[in-house]
Specification:
The protein is α+β, with helices and mostly antiparallel strands. It contains ten helices and eleven strands.
Length: about 350
Amino acid sequence: MAKGIDPVKLAAFSTEALKKVGVPAGDAKITADILVAADLRGVDSHGVAHLQPFYIKGIQEGRINPTPNIKITSNSDTTALVDGDKGLGFVVGYRAMEEAIKRAKTHGTGWVTVTNSTHYGAGAYYAMMALKEKMIGLSMTQGGKGVVAPNTRGKGIGLNVLSVAVPSGKNAPWVLDMATGVVAGGKLEIAAREGKSIPEGWAVDQDGKPVTEVKDATGGILPLGGDPAHGSFKGFGLTMFIDILCGVLSGTMSVPEKSGVRGAPSPGGTGHCFGAIGVSGFMPVNMFEAGMERMFDALHNLPKAEGVDRLFVNGEMEATTEENRRKNGVPLHESIIQNLKDTAKELGVTYNL
């Protein structure tokens, strides 16, 4: 790892690179900020490592529309459907979550499904947008077809994502950010980048046999639970639930229906679902936050396993990582830095990181 990179400079560089491929300045900044936010929280698989290979390349190859005409259709006071016009998922997701929050301010809750979008990066950012309004935020998205359904062989269901953010008073916000596989696909990407093996139980080959090398994980990632004896039907059910909200309810094709060929066109693109729930519709916010603080205190006071000093509640470890990286910079693998330098050269952007 090289020295930490100033996150402000990293976001500015990413913004300029996106502008060079036709993304309007405001949309480029939204995208760059969300990418860097993932790196700051330690979600290195969904940060600037994907700037060029996922998003800039997607625009250059015509798979992502840099100037989408995002349309909102309402069917009730608390719900809406957004057509993302194949725009950057970051921009589409940001606008959709804003819409959910706006409806929640007026009606207590807001829900927005999205069709015709693209990959939106790390899901937690959108859920956390609700926190500043003292709301509970939810963010879900279809992932690529990369998970093995229980009792089947091969990649058949989505590596779908669920993120939830809850205001927690004096504590770091409670933030759940998870894929419905045993592990997120980005973990395999990081292992491959660093030349490391993976634990048995993460993925299988085409015959359904466990593997420990990323190159052999051709059969897909296992669902949360691993196998039926250890609860894989729970992970399977959670995967389907997210696909129902993001795919079926938005009018987007569900992941199992999509072609298994990477990059193949899929009617409806990628589907998302966002929700915002106003705490004040149930009780005073300070009463709710006091309850969250008591819950955190009770968890922190649980007896610790041998060798463990502290229990990290969901979101605390990421908050600690963010605090550290804001002070000391974002550590990037040398291969990512080289990719950013190559991108700067290709697009004519000054590399000053």
